[in-house]
Structures are given as structure tokens and as C-alpha cells.
Amino acid sequence: MYRFMEEENGLAVATKPAAEPDARSIISMRNIWKTYQMGTEQLHALRDVSFDVRKNEYVAIIGPSGSGKSTLMNLIGCLDSPTSGEYWINGHLVSEMEDDELARIRNKEIGFVFQTFNLLPRATALHNVELPLIYAGIRSAERQEKAQAALASVELGERSLHKPNELSGGQRQRVAIARALVNHPSILLADEPTGALDTKTSYEIMALFEKLHEEGNTIILVTHEPDIAERAHRVITIRDGLIESDERIKK
Amino acid sequence: MNFTETLKLAIDAVMAHKLRSFLTLLGMIIGVTAFMVVLSILQGFNSYVDEKIAGIGSNSFTVMRFSMDDFKDTDTIAAAQRRNTDLTFEEMAFIREHAQLIGEIGAKAGNTSRDIKHGDETLTNVSISGAQPIIAEIDKLDIAEGRFFSNAENDNSARVIYIGMDVANKFFPRGDALGQEISISGIPYRVIGIQVAKGTVFGRPMDNFVMMPLKTFGAAFGGLTNSRAPTFSVTAKYPDRFDDAVEEVRTLLRIKRKIPFGEKDNFGIMTPDAITGLRDRIFGSIFIVVLAVPAIALIVGAIVVMNIMLVSVTERTKEIGIRMSLGARKSDVLRQFLFESTLLAVVGGVIGLIIAKLLGVIISQMMFQTVIPLWAAILAIVVSGGVGVLAGLYPAWKAAMLDPIEALRAD
Hints:
The complex is a heterodimer.
Chain A: E1 4-8, E2 11-15, E3 25-38, E4 41-54, E5 58-62, H1 69-76, E6 84-89, E7 92-93, H2 99-109, E8 110-113, H3 125-135, H4 140-153, H5 169-181, E9 187-191, H6 199-214, E10 218-223, H7 226-229, E11 234-239, E12 242-248
Chain B: H1 3-16, H2 18-56, E1 60-64, H3 74-83, H4 89-98, E2 102-118, E3 121-131, H5 135-138, E4 143-146, H6 151-155, E5 160-163, H7 165-171, E6 181-184, E7 187-195, E8 200-201, E9 204-205, E10 209-213, H8 214-221, E11 230-236, H9 242-257, E12 268-270, H10 272-315, H11 317-325, H12 330-366, H13 374-400, H14 404-409
Parallel strand pairs in B: 3-10, 5-7
Antiparallel strand pairs in B: 1-11, 1-12, 2-3, 2-6, 2-11, 4-7, 5-10, 6-7, 8-9
Helix pairs in contact in B: 1-12, 2-10, 2-12, 2-13, 4-9, 10-12, 10-13, 12-13
């Protein structure tokens, strides 16, 4: 293995010319393994998983619990590193990165949307949306402007000074989506985003994802509900740590 | 994340639990308060003594039978008692005659304690002393009413007295003390002067005294020997040659007493420097002892701060996970909690400082002016901050080392 270092966006990026991923791919996973050591047993949560996601795709990852779906999501979200294999996101080889570089990638390239929203309870909606910008080192005035704009784009511009407990579940999830989008990430990574919402609100949130997709965002949705997964344009099914199927849905 | 953002975050966190923050800081507050109060008392006492010395005249010194070094221990006291002899008026006359560098020289004889009476009223344990008339100038006495003794009164052993304000107020509440009589050991004395009130020092009244002409004192109490032997109060003629004046008096007395070269003085000379030196020696050791109390309080305080920071990290595991998922680096999380513990401790230091200042005001009214020096205030804040950093290191490190996946899963 030979590689050289180059500076790009202030990040040291290790590149390997031989296996350069498809330039149109935002995400490129190559032979990813994730193995946990449980005492003397080895547990393979992911076995040799490879797939690509292109810009402006809308992908659902579906699978039963214990399928390795959560592990895959943590890897895509750069919260964890694979045991072996290569993971590229937007030209960065993430699988080789140290903790601080991973934090930068999470900040710049990934917008998380969680099932339980994960907003800071004591902070206003505006401050919650500002958080990724704070860690990106953006100045206060610009930050507030951007955060306000992001809230306006999810139709919560009027509620920016409310705290999470003063908002409905749907509104909270929209604040979380605004927070995920505020740094213009490469992908929007949603983990069961409707899991804590009623049916009507779920449809609203799914409609919002559709709109964001139309606006050019790349979306990866992790779910165990087939009817939610069907809203996506491509469905990857995981079972026992392997990709069972990868289908495009005709719309 | 930059400095102001981190600071804002720390302020938010401390303010979110005001009572808890306060209780956490009690140890710190007590430590800082104790430190500052002790220091302000010492400082206040120091400037009080300096002021008193300036009042007496830093230009004067006292010659007496024993030196301060003689009081080091019982052996030196015993040795000095064998060697040193009472000062005599002959010796004073010799010094006055030959000294070139001294301004005034006068004799005092010191304090015996008696009950004194006026009519039916009695004052117990009043300090009685004798002084030559020149002492009024040497000691810069503040006369409130009347006058000090004349030379004629001293020469004739006249039964006249100069009294402190407490004595005057007790016996003559209507303020008509001058010319009245006070009886001491059955002999009546006429009041001719009253001293301006000096208040108390460490609760000891300074205005509860009677002074009479030196000869009168000798005659009334059985001669100017032993504990009633005279001491000489001397001023330097030229303030900038004070040390030379002291040396001159020492040399003259050695000549008069025929002390061979190389042998120790068999008398003592007390200069203002010697007084401040003694004070520094006494308070130096007190200082070290009293510093131990705040130090222990600070250590306990630091442990409490550390404990509460550990609780805080555990409580906010989810928050840490969220922040990490949004791009917080380990160093951001570390700094967040380190700032929090530091701010907490500094707030404790500031509260301690404020309480110490308030206590200082009370002490100033009861005893003497206390002072918190600026360097001590700054030191207290810096030390508190340092304690905060140390106490926060482990909890902050624990927070920074959290696995984001685990942290996000926490409730």
C-alpha cells in the first residue's frame, strides 16, 4: 500500500490512486468488515459490505434488528471506524482517520437526524441549529443568520427562540433537520426519523425529506419500516451483516 | 470552539444549577474567606503598628536594662539578669553631656498597676508610670486638656498627674477633671492634664493610665530600682543619621560602664526596626499556621468540585454524545468541562473574597483597620482558578474519552 498526503479543505487526506472510487460517488464503501470481540467469540456485525451512493440519491437502508443496520449507520455517520475495508466520503478516506478528523467529517459532511431528535433541552431552537456552526468555528453573527435561514427553510422561522419542550414532536424533528442541514453536508443521515412520531406527522416529515431530495440533497434513511423505506428511490436490505438486496424503485 | 463560546457554555452550565453550584463551592468559599480574613488582619495589624511607630516617632529609640534578644529563652533571661544592671541618672547625664547626634533624652519608669480612687469610685488595675517632662516632646503626646508636667514639678516631686481619657471619663463624667484629686495608695494627686483618647488595641484599652513626674513616682513607690528602674527615651538630632545616633548612645554607655572591647552590651536598645522585626518574627510563624486552615479547606473544596463535575459529566452524557455527533472534538469537550470547573471555582473565590471584605469591614469597626492587599485578592482568584483546573481535569478527560455511540444511547 502506498499513499501520499495532500491538504484539502484544511484536512489531511490520505488518497490511494489505485482504488480511487467513482468520482460521482458521495459515499463509497469497499469490503467493509466490522468485527466485535465478545470474549473468545468473534461477532461479525458487517461482512464484506460494498456499495456506492451517488450525489442526490435517496437511499433507504432497511433490515431487522440485529442485522447490522445500526452498525452500518454508525460507520456511515463516522461515529465508528470499520475493522477493515475502505470508506470514502466526498473524496475523504474516512476509514483511516483519527478521532479529531472524524469529528471534522461529522461536522462538515454529515447531517444527523435521530429518532429521538437529540436536541439540547435547555437551548433554544436557534441555538440547537447553531451548534454545528459553533464547532465549525463560524462567527456569531453569521452563525445566527445561517441558523435562522435553516429554521425558515423548515418553516420554523417564527419559533426560533422556543425551547424543545415548547415545540411539538414534528416541530422538534424539523429543528433537528434544520440543524442537520445548516452546514450544507454531503449527506443527510436519518436514523428512524419518524419512529417517535404519529402517522400524520410522519407523513409531514417524509414529505419534507422528499422536498429536500428534490432540492439536491443526498439522503440516507435507516429504518425497519418497509412503508417508510418505500418512499426512497433505492432500498438496500441488510441481513446478518450482508447486503441481501439493493434495488432501485421505479417512480 | 473558541474561548467566548466555551465561556458562555460554562456560564450557562453553572447558572443552570445555582444552588448546587453554591453548595459545591462552600469549601472553596470558606478556604478563600479564611485566607483573606487572616491576611487582612495581619496586614491591618502591620499598618497599625507602622502607624503607631510613626506616631511615636520613628526618630526615637529606647535604652533599657534588657535587650529583646535577652528574652529568647529562660537561659538568656537568667544570664541577662546576672549581667545587666539598672540604668542610672548618672549614665543619662553622661550621655546627654557627650552625645553629638542626639536631640533629646529623657527618662521614664514603668508600669506598676494600682487601684485608684476618687470619692466612692474605684478603678482597678490602672497602669501607673513616671516620666520626666521632656517625655511629652519625645513621645509626641497628644494632650486633650491641660498640660504635661513642668521641670519644677518633677524636681519637687509634686503630686500632680497626667491621665488617660478612660480615667477622666470614669471619675469626672461632667468633664471637669482638671484640678480635681485622685487618690493612689491613699495619697491624693491633682489632675493637670488629660491625653487624647487612643481607643483599644486587641481589646486592650490604651486610655486607662496615670502618669506622674518621675521623681514623684520614685518617691511614692519605693525608689527607681528593679521593675521601676528608669529607661531612656532618645531622639536623633538628624533623622537621616538615626542609626549613627543609636550607635553613639551605645558606645557612650559602653564607655561609661567600662565594657571591654569584644564583650556583649549589658543593656538593651530598642529601635522601631527592632519592634517591627519582632512583630515580623511573631506573625511570620502565626501566618504559616493559619495558612494551613485555608489550605485544607481548599483541598476539600477541590475534591467536592471534582465530585460534582463527575456527576455533571454523567448527567450530561447524552449532551456530550449529541455534541460529538455534530462535530465536537475531544478537545472541545475537554475544554467545555475544564472551563466549567474553573469558572465554578473562580466564582467560589470571588464569593470568598466578597465575604472576607465584609468581615473585614466588621473587624475594622471592632478592632483596627483591616486591608486586603491587591496582590492577595489576585492570588486568591488565581489559586481558585488553579484548583478548578486541577479538580476538572479528570472529569473533563472522562467526558472527552466517551464513545459517541455509547453517549448518544444514554438517557
